[in-house]
Amino acid sequence: MRRLILDKLLVWKNSSSRKPILLDGARQTGKSYLLEMLLGEHFEQVIRLDFLEQPHLTAIFEGSLNPDDILNNIELELNVSIDKDKALIIFDEIGECQAAVNSLKFFAEQCPQMFVCASGSNIGLLGSFPVGKVELLNLYPMTFEEFVWESKQTALIKAFDQMNMGKVAHDKLFSLLIDYYFVGGMPEAVKRWFSSVGEQGVLERTKAITQIHAALIAGYERDFGKYSDKVSAQHIQAVFNNVPVQLSKNIDGSVKRFKFKSVIEKKSRYQELAGPINWLEKCRLLSRCHPVDCKPSSPLSAFAKDNIFKLFLFDVGLLGYMLGLSYKEHRDQDFNYKGYIAENFVQNELIAQGGSPTYSWEYARSEVEFLYKCDDGSVVPVEVKSGKRTRAKSLGVYVERYQPKTTIKLIGSTGSLENENALVVPLYYVSKLNKQELLCK
Fold first, then answer.
1. Are residues 105 and 214 in the same domain?
2. With 60 as the cut, is the pLDDT of residue 441 above it?
3. Are 375 and 436 in contact (CB under 8 A)?
4. Is residue 300 part of a domain?
5. How far from 289 is each of 78, 83, 343, CA to CA, in Å?
6. Pick from 325, 435, 432, 428: which is nearest to 386 by CA?
7. What is residue 255's DSSP assignment?
8. Number of domains in the chain
9. What does pTM read for this prediction?
10. What digits encode the pLDDT tens for the residues 133-162?
């Protein structure tokens, strides 16, 4: 599998001096595979320690956090000889070993020439980690671009790279986008979906994906209890289950602000739900979008309010599974909830580009789904239209009030880049917004 983040890891590998990598991400997003198989291909030797699978490995760090002592202990434990200048050292599920987390500081200070990577699915829950001594990267579920790559359709990959706006390319890319809505970006599901093309019928393939989604959700639910007390686990579960429910209620218009009432019995204020929401966000299972109710300007974070936000699920395929949406329903595209599916898709694509949170705009009854900030500090309004209708009243209100130099509409049909001040782009090209020459001229 090809992953976008590999390019960043190769830049890190080729730098003259480096800090250890700390790779964060939800469970089962492919962190271990990325480091051991994809990055590991570029090393003569790969040493991986998994503290979840082999808890006894924590003994390697007992007594000393000196890198030389740690490497000696690894050699003794694994019966290997480590070349400091050629080996990739991976501390997997590092959250299970706080001493290993602490050791990263000493690797950064005493052995900057070494290639040390750590990963975990609960890094956000750590009591502490060596700030300033690691390079923190986030791995998200596979983006639509990575999904296109995995399809192995060479001509279609080329069309996507070139932002082909023709009807033939659109029909194929939009069809693949609907598949992505159902499958999502979890690597196991993506691999299963494409590996069985031509070998199994649609019913068998969709059943297999549903089983994978069920297993993933069950795993996350087990984590709720493992990494929190019983009461907190119940509250985390309640919030996690409620996010898809609230999203599905937005039949008309944009996704609305998350409502705290009725999520947990006898709790109706943000302060009472902040703990579970923050827990899920730290584990990368949810993300926030903060509405801005005035003229947007940089920094957008200045307009964010702690208790006012939209909540989205980290993977659009799991969102559909949790709501019981079938592949046929996604394919039909007449279902009235496709708007929030598209909005959650755009949210996840934007986060994969630049991290969270994202921002939207509200004024009276007008709503623009996203605000995109360019490197020069200018803000571009981004309206999401899941279908073929491109009329955007709210975007018109925004333009009338603030006269932005550029606007963009993401739609479910072919688009046009002819008017550089009012771009109309198919939904599946949302990842191209990071091309500054497209939006920020």
1. no
2. no
3. yes
4. yes
5. 46, 46, 11
6. 428
7. P
8. 2
9. 0.94
10. 999 999 999 999 999 999 999 999 999 999
